[in-house]
Design brief:
This protein is of the alpha/beta class. The chain folds into two domains: 173 residues, HAD superfamily/HAD-like (Rossmann fold, 3-Layer(aba) Sandwich); 183 residues, no CATH class. The protein has 17 helices and six strands. It has a six-stranded parallel sheet with strand order 3-2-1-4-5-6, with helices on both faces. β4, α15 and β5 form a beta-alpha-beta unit. α1 packs parallel to α4, α1 crosses α8 and α4 crosses α8. It is globular and about 70 Å long.
Length: 377
Protein backbone atom coordinates (compact mmCIF):
# COMPACT_ATOMS: atom_id res chain seq x y z
CA UNK A 1 0.00 0.00 0.00
CA UNK A 2 1.41 3.38 -1.02
CA UNK A 3 2.21 5.67 1.90
CA UNK A 4 4.63 8.24 0.45
CA UNK A 5 4.45 10.03 -2.92
CA UNK A 6 7.49 11.92 -4.22
CA UNK A 7 7.06 14.28 -7.17
CA UNK A 8 9.48 15.56 -9.75
CA UNK A 9 8.77 19.23 -10.53
CA UNK A 10 9.70 19.97 -14.15
CA UNK A 11 7.38 18.27 -16.57
CA UNK A 12 5.09 17.20 -13.71
CA UNK A 13 4.10 20.33 -11.77
CA UNK A 14 5.79 23.10 -13.74
CA UNK A 15 6.60 23.38 -17.43
CA UNK A 16 10.20 22.79 -18.50
CA UNK A 17 9.97 25.27 -21.35
CA UNK A 18 11.66 28.20 -19.60
CA UNK A 19 14.41 25.91 -18.35
CA UNK A 20 15.10 24.81 -21.90
CA UNK A 21 15.03 28.43 -23.04
CA UNK A 22 17.61 29.31 -20.37
CA UNK A 23 19.71 26.30 -21.42
CA UNK A 24 19.77 27.41 -25.04
CA UNK A 25 20.60 30.99 -24.09
CA UNK A 26 23.49 29.76 -21.93
CA UNK A 27 25.03 27.84 -24.84
CA UNK A 28 24.51 30.89 -27.06
CA UNK A 29 26.21 33.21 -24.57
CA UNK A 30 29.18 30.90 -24.00
CA UNK A 31 29.76 30.66 -27.74
CA UNK A 32 29.05 34.21 -28.93
CA UNK A 33 29.53 36.58 -26.02
CA UNK A 34 32.86 38.51 -26.02
CA UNK A 35 33.07 37.54 -22.34
CA UNK A 36 33.52 33.90 -23.33
CA UNK A 37 34.48 32.36 -26.71
CA UNK A 38 33.08 35.33 -28.64
CA UNK A 39 32.64 33.66 -32.02
CA UNK A 40 31.61 35.80 -34.96
CA UNK A 41 28.37 35.03 -36.77
CA UNK A 42 25.81 36.09 -34.19
CA UNK A 43 25.26 39.13 -31.99
CA UNK A 44 24.89 38.41 -28.29
CA UNK A 45 22.71 40.40 -25.92
CA UNK A 46 21.89 39.68 -22.25
CA UNK A 47 18.36 41.03 -22.83
CA UNK A 48 17.02 39.15 -25.86
CA UNK A 49 13.49 39.68 -27.12
CA UNK A 50 11.07 36.77 -27.11
CA UNK A 51 11.64 36.41 -30.88
CA UNK A 52 15.39 36.03 -30.31
CA UNK A 53 14.80 33.52 -27.51
CA UNK A 54 12.64 31.43 -29.82
CA UNK A 55 15.27 31.57 -32.60
CA UNK A 56 18.12 30.64 -30.26
CA UNK A 57 16.16 27.76 -28.72
CA UNK A 58 15.28 26.42 -32.17
CA UNK A 59 18.90 26.61 -33.37
CA UNK A 60 20.80 25.41 -30.29
CA UNK A 61 18.69 22.32 -29.77
CA UNK A 62 17.95 21.68 -33.46
CA UNK A 63 14.16 21.96 -33.13
CA UNK A 64 14.48 20.11 -29.78
CA UNK A 65 15.91 16.99 -31.43
CA UNK A 66 19.11 17.40 -29.41
CA UNK A 67 17.10 17.84 -26.21
CA UNK A 68 15.03 14.74 -26.87
CA UNK A 69 18.15 12.72 -27.65
CA UNK A 70 19.95 13.79 -24.47
CA UNK A 71 16.91 13.07 -22.32
CA UNK A 72 16.46 9.68 -23.99
CA UNK A 73 19.96 8.79 -22.76
CA UNK A 74 18.94 9.41 -19.14
CA UNK A 75 20.28 12.96 -18.71
CA UNK A 76 17.83 15.05 -16.69
CA UNK A 77 20.01 17.99 -15.61
CA UNK A 78 19.86 21.21 -17.62
CA UNK A 79 23.41 21.93 -16.46
CA UNK A 80 24.59 18.66 -18.02
CA UNK A 81 22.66 19.42 -21.22
CA UNK A 82 24.35 22.80 -21.57
CA UNK A 83 27.76 21.32 -20.78
CA UNK A 84 27.32 18.68 -23.47
CA UNK A 85 26.11 21.08 -26.15
CA UNK A 86 28.75 23.74 -25.46
CA UNK A 87 31.69 21.38 -24.99
CA UNK A 88 30.89 19.61 -28.24
CA UNK A 89 31.17 22.89 -30.16
CA UNK A 90 34.46 23.66 -28.38
CA UNK A 91 35.86 20.38 -29.65
CA UNK A 92 34.71 21.19 -33.18
CA UNK A 93 36.34 24.63 -32.94
CA UNK A 94 39.65 23.20 -31.74
CA UNK A 95 39.54 20.68 -34.60
CA UNK A 96 39.31 23.57 -37.08
CA UNK A 97 42.02 25.61 -35.34
CA UNK A 98 44.55 22.82 -34.89
CA UNK A 99 46.11 22.85 -38.41
CA UNK A 100 47.07 26.50 -37.98
CA UNK A 101 47.40 26.60 -34.18
CA UNK A 102 48.68 23.18 -33.03
CA UNK A 103 48.77 24.30 -29.41
CA UNK A 104 44.99 24.79 -29.45
CA UNK A 105 44.53 21.06 -28.86
CA UNK A 106 46.48 21.29 -25.61
CA UNK A 107 43.73 23.47 -24.14
CA UNK A 108 41.50 20.40 -24.09
CA UNK A 109 43.88 18.73 -21.63
CA UNK A 110 43.68 21.42 -18.94
CA UNK A 111 40.90 22.87 -16.84
CA UNK A 112 39.09 25.33 -19.08
CA UNK A 113 38.38 28.62 -17.34
CA UNK A 114 37.78 32.13 -18.63
CA UNK A 115 41.46 32.78 -19.54
CA UNK A 116 41.54 29.66 -21.71
CA UNK A 117 38.25 30.60 -23.36
CA UNK A 118 39.69 34.07 -24.02
CA UNK A 119 42.66 32.43 -25.72
CA UNK A 120 40.32 30.41 -27.90
CA UNK A 121 38.46 33.60 -28.75
CA UNK A 122 41.70 35.25 -29.89
CA UNK A 123 42.69 32.29 -32.04
CA UNK A 124 39.20 31.86 -33.48
CA UNK A 125 38.99 35.51 -34.52
CA UNK A 126 42.46 35.39 -36.06
CA UNK A 127 42.46 31.98 -37.74
CA UNK A 128 38.85 30.80 -38.03
CA UNK A 129 36.61 33.87 -38.34
CA UNK A 130 34.25 31.94 -40.59
CA UNK A 131 33.86 28.98 -38.22
CA UNK A 132 30.28 27.77 -38.36
CA UNK A 133 28.62 26.37 -35.26
CA UNK A 134 26.76 23.18 -36.23
CA UNK A 135 24.38 22.32 -33.43
CA UNK A 136 22.72 19.42 -35.25
CA UNK A 137 26.08 17.66 -35.75
CA UNK A 138 25.81 16.69 -32.08
CA UNK A 139 23.28 14.01 -32.97
CA UNK A 140 25.26 11.75 -35.33
CA UNK A 141 28.44 12.08 -33.28
CA UNK A 142 26.76 11.02 -30.03
CA UNK A 143 24.58 8.43 -31.77
CA UNK A 144 27.79 6.52 -32.53
CA UNK A 145 28.16 5.89 -28.81
CA UNK A 146 25.97 3.85 -26.50
CA UNK A 147 26.91 6.14 -23.59
CA UNK A 148 24.12 6.69 -21.08
CA UNK A 149 23.65 9.15 -18.22
CA UNK A 150 26.89 10.64 -16.84
CA UNK A 151 28.95 8.57 -19.30
CA UNK A 152 27.76 10.94 -22.02
CA UNK A 153 29.83 13.69 -20.43
CA UNK A 154 32.88 11.41 -20.38
CA UNK A 155 32.30 10.54 -24.04
CA UNK A 156 33.37 14.09 -24.87
CA UNK A 157 36.91 12.96 -24.06
CA UNK A 158 36.63 10.27 -26.74
CA UNK A 159 35.37 12.82 -29.24
CA UNK A 160 38.32 15.08 -28.39
CA UNK A 161 40.66 12.20 -29.17
CA UNK A 162 38.90 11.35 -32.44
CA UNK A 163 38.55 14.89 -33.72
CA UNK A 164 41.60 16.62 -32.26
CA UNK A 165 44.05 13.77 -31.68
CA UNK A 166 44.46 14.61 -28.00
CA UNK A 167 44.30 12.33 -25.00
CA UNK A 168 42.33 13.98 -22.22
CA UNK A 169 40.14 13.28 -19.22
CA UNK A 170 39.18 16.92 -18.72
CA UNK A 171 35.51 16.60 -19.64
CA UNK A 172 33.65 15.37 -16.57
CA UNK A 173 30.98 16.46 -14.08
CA UNK A 174 33.78 17.54 -11.74
CA UNK A 175 35.66 19.86 -14.10
CA UNK A 176 35.95 23.62 -13.76
CA UNK A 177 34.19 24.13 -17.10
CA UNK A 178 31.11 22.33 -15.78
CA UNK A 179 31.02 24.73 -12.84
CA UNK A 180 31.33 27.72 -15.17
CA UNK A 181 28.46 26.37 -17.29
CA UNK A 182 26.31 25.81 -14.20
CA UNK A 183 26.85 29.34 -12.90
CA UNK A 184 26.16 30.91 -16.29
CA UNK A 185 22.89 28.98 -16.55
CA UNK A 186 21.90 30.23 -13.10
CA UNK A 187 22.49 33.80 -14.26
CA UNK A 188 19.99 33.30 -17.07
CA UNK A 189 17.34 31.54 -15.06
CA UNK A 190 17.46 33.66 -11.92
CA UNK A 191 18.38 37.02 -13.41
CA UNK A 192 20.48 39.83 -11.96
CA UNK A 193 18.42 40.31 -8.79
CA UNK A 194 18.38 36.71 -7.60
CA UNK A 195 21.60 35.11 -8.84
CA UNK A 196 23.90 36.18 -6.00
CA UNK A 197 21.80 34.20 -3.50
CA UNK A 198 22.30 31.08 -5.63
CA UNK A 199 25.96 31.19 -6.71
CA UNK A 200 27.49 33.69 -4.31
CA UNK A 201 28.38 36.39 -6.83
CA UNK A 202 26.74 38.91 -9.11
CA UNK A 203 26.09 38.09 -12.75
CA UNK A 204 29.13 38.39 -15.01
CA UNK A 205 27.09 40.13 -17.74
CA UNK A 206 24.40 42.35 -16.21
CA UNK A 207 21.10 42.85 -17.96
CA UNK A 208 19.49 39.41 -17.52
CA UNK A 209 15.88 39.58 -16.37
CA UNK A 210 15.58 35.91 -15.44
CA UNK A 211 12.71 33.45 -15.80
CA UNK A 212 11.93 32.75 -12.15
CA UNK A 213 8.86 35.00 -12.20
CA UNK A 214 7.71 33.65 -15.56
CA UNK A 215 6.99 30.03 -14.61
CA UNK A 216 4.24 28.07 -16.38
CA UNK A 217 2.22 25.48 -14.38
CA UNK A 218 1.47 22.20 -16.14
CA UNK A 219 -2.17 22.29 -15.02
CA UNK A 220 -4.05 25.11 -13.26
CA UNK A 221 -2.63 25.63 -9.74
CA UNK A 222 -6.11 25.34 -8.23
CA UNK A 223 -6.37 21.83 -9.71
CA UNK A 224 -3.04 20.84 -8.15
CA UNK A 225 -4.07 22.31 -4.80
CA UNK A 226 -7.25 20.24 -4.93
CA UNK A 227 -5.22 17.12 -5.72
CA UNK A 228 -2.74 17.67 -2.91
CA UNK A 229 -5.49 18.48 -0.42
CA UNK A 230 -7.24 15.21 -1.24
CA UNK A 231 -4.01 13.21 -1.00
CA UNK A 232 -3.18 14.73 2.39
CA UNK A 233 -6.71 14.04 3.65
CA UNK A 234 -6.25 10.41 2.64
CA UNK A 235 -3.09 10.19 4.72
CA UNK A 236 -0.37 10.24 2.07
CA UNK A 237 2.99 11.88 2.84
CA UNK A 238 4.00 14.18 -0.03
CA UNK A 239 7.53 15.15 -1.01
CA UNK A 240 9.65 16.40 -3.91
CA UNK A 241 12.79 15.20 -5.66
CA UNK A 242 13.80 17.76 -8.27
CA UNK A 243 16.79 18.78 -10.35
CA UNK A 244 15.98 22.43 -9.60
CA UNK A 245 18.01 24.30 -6.97
CA UNK A 246 16.13 25.27 -3.82
CA UNK A 247 15.36 28.87 -4.74
CA UNK A 248 13.94 27.80 -8.10
CA UNK A 249 11.76 25.23 -6.36
CA UNK A 250 10.51 27.19 -3.36
CA UNK A 251 9.78 30.56 -4.98
CA UNK A 252 7.41 29.52 -7.81
CA UNK A 253 5.71 26.72 -5.86
CA UNK A 254 5.12 29.03 -2.91
CA UNK A 255 3.77 31.75 -5.23
CA UNK A 256 1.27 29.27 -6.66
CA UNK A 257 0.19 28.02 -3.24
CA UNK A 258 1.66 24.55 -3.82
CA UNK A 259 4.69 24.36 -1.54
CA UNK A 260 2.68 24.23 1.69
CA UNK A 261 1.24 20.82 0.78
CA UNK A 262 4.62 19.10 0.86
CA UNK A 263 6.43 17.90 3.98
CA UNK A 264 9.34 20.41 4.34
CA UNK A 265 11.56 17.56 5.49
CA UNK A 266 10.98 15.84 2.13
CA UNK A 267 11.56 18.64 -0.40
CA UNK A 268 14.89 17.63 -1.96
CA UNK A 269 16.48 19.84 -4.63
CA UNK A 270 19.64 20.12 -6.70
CA UNK A 271 21.06 22.28 -3.92
CA UNK A 272 21.01 19.25 -1.65
CA UNK A 273 22.54 17.12 -4.40
CA UNK A 274 25.46 19.52 -4.81
CA UNK A 275 25.99 19.60 -1.05
CA UNK A 276 26.00 15.80 -0.93
CA UNK A 277 28.49 15.64 -3.80
CA UNK A 278 30.76 18.02 -1.90
CA UNK A 279 30.42 15.96 1.27
CA UNK A 280 30.76 12.59 -0.46
CA UNK A 281 32.95 13.10 -3.57
CA UNK A 282 33.51 9.36 -3.90
CA UNK A 283 29.84 9.00 -4.92
CA UNK A 284 29.73 11.70 -7.63
CA UNK A 285 27.57 12.19 -9.68
CA UNK A 286 24.41 12.11 -7.59
CA UNK A 287 21.96 13.86 -9.93
CA UNK A 288 19.19 11.78 -11.47
CA UNK A 289 19.01 9.02 -12.54
CA UNK A 290 21.00 8.38 -9.35
CA UNK A 291 18.36 7.59 -6.72
CA UNK A 292 19.85 9.96 -4.10
CA UNK A 293 17.18 12.70 -4.47
CA UNK A 294 14.31 10.32 -3.93
CA UNK A 295 15.94 8.26 -1.17
CA UNK A 296 16.75 11.51 0.65
CA UNK A 297 13.12 12.54 0.20
CA UNK A 298 11.95 9.23 1.63
CA UNK A 299 14.28 9.33 4.64
CA UNK A 300 14.17 13.09 5.25
CA UNK A 301 16.57 16.03 4.96
CA UNK A 302 17.98 15.49 8.45
CA UNK A 303 19.28 12.04 7.45
CA UNK A 304 23.08 12.26 6.92
CA UNK A 305 24.11 11.99 3.29
CA UNK A 306 26.28 8.91 3.77
CA UNK A 307 23.38 7.15 5.49
CA UNK A 308 21.23 8.00 2.47
CA UNK A 309 23.86 6.77 0.02
CA UNK A 310 24.42 3.55 1.95
CA UNK A 311 20.76 2.81 2.51
CA UNK A 312 19.97 -0.74 1.31
CA UNK A 313 18.39 -0.85 -2.13
CA UNK A 314 16.10 -2.06 -3.51
CA UNK A 315 13.70 -1.30 -0.67
CA UNK A 316 12.13 -4.24 1.09
CA UNK A 317 8.90 -2.23 1.31
CA UNK A 318 9.08 -0.62 -2.13
CA UNK A 319 5.34 -0.89 -2.64
CA UNK A 320 4.91 1.87 -0.04
CA UNK A 321 6.67 4.50 -2.19
CA UNK A 322 5.42 6.03 -5.44
CA UNK A 323 7.57 8.34 -7.58
CA UNK A 324 5.82 10.62 -10.07
CA UNK A 325 8.04 11.85 -12.91
CA UNK A 326 8.08 12.62 -16.61
CA UNK A 327 11.50 11.36 -17.67
CA UNK A 328 13.52 8.21 -18.17
CA UNK A 329 15.89 9.49 -15.47
CA UNK A 330 13.02 9.47 -12.95
CA UNK A 331 12.03 5.98 -14.06
CA UNK A 332 15.58 4.66 -13.70
CA UNK A 333 15.86 6.16 -10.22
CA UNK A 334 12.59 4.48 -9.22
CA UNK A 335 13.77 1.13 -10.54
CA UNK A 336 17.02 1.45 -8.57
CA UNK A 337 14.98 2.08 -5.44
CA UNK A 338 12.58 -0.77 -6.17
CA UNK A 339 9.44 1.32 -5.82
CA UNK A 340 6.47 2.13 -8.02
CA UNK A 341 6.65 4.73 -10.76
CA UNK A 342 3.94 6.86 -12.37
CA UNK A 343 4.93 8.55 -15.65
CA UNK A 344 3.21 11.80 -16.60
CA UNK A 345 2.89 12.63 -20.29
CA UNK A 346 3.47 16.35 -19.69
CA UNK A 347 7.20 16.58 -20.29
CA UNK A 348 9.09 17.65 -23.39
CA UNK A 349 7.80 14.78 -25.56
CA UNK A 350 4.18 14.98 -24.40
CA UNK A 351 1.94 12.11 -25.47
CA UNK A 352 4.73 10.77 -27.70
CA UNK A 353 6.44 9.53 -24.52
CA UNK A 354 3.70 6.97 -23.94
CA UNK A 355 5.36 4.30 -26.10
CA UNK A 356 8.68 4.81 -24.31
CA UNK A 357 7.10 4.31 -20.91
CA UNK A 358 5.08 1.34 -22.17
CA UNK A 359 8.32 -0.20 -23.46
CA UNK A 360 10.07 0.09 -20.09
CA UNK A 361 6.89 -1.05 -18.33
CA UNK A 362 6.24 1.90 -16.07
CA UNK A 363 3.73 0.94 -13.38
CA UNK A 364 1.36 3.74 -14.35
CA UNK A 365 1.12 6.19 -17.26
CA UNK A 366 -0.88 9.36 -16.63
CA UNK A 367 -2.03 12.07 -19.00
CA UNK A 368 -1.17 14.56 -16.26
CA UNK A 369 -0.67 14.66 -12.50
CA UNK A 370 -4.40 15.04 -11.81
CA UNK A 371 -4.89 11.44 -12.91
CA UNK A 372 -3.13 10.24 -9.75
CA UNK A 373 -6.48 9.97 -8.01
CA UNK A 374 -7.60 7.43 -10.61
CA UNK A 375 -4.83 4.98 -9.73
CA UNK A 376 -5.01 5.53 -5.95
CA UNK A 377 -8.72 4.77 -5.55
Amino acid sequence: MIKTILFDVDGVLLSEERYFDASALTVWELLFSPGYVGLQGDTFTPAPSEAIIRRVREQVFAHDEVLNFIKSRGINSNWDMVFLAFSYQLIRLVEVLKPQVPEAASLLTVQLERPQLAQLREWANAYAPDFQVDYAAFLPDFAKSSAQKADMLLYLNELARERCGVETAMFSPNCVLWQLVQETFQEWYLGDEQVAASIGRETMQPGKKGFLTDEIPIVPPEDMIGLFRTLKERGYTLGIGTGRPSIETHVPLRAMGLLEWFDPERVVTATHVLEAEANCPDYVPLSKPHPYSYVKGLLGLTTPDRDVLQYPLPLTNGEELLIVGDSLADFLAARSIGCRFAATLTGLSGQEARSKFEEVQADYILDDVRCLLDILT
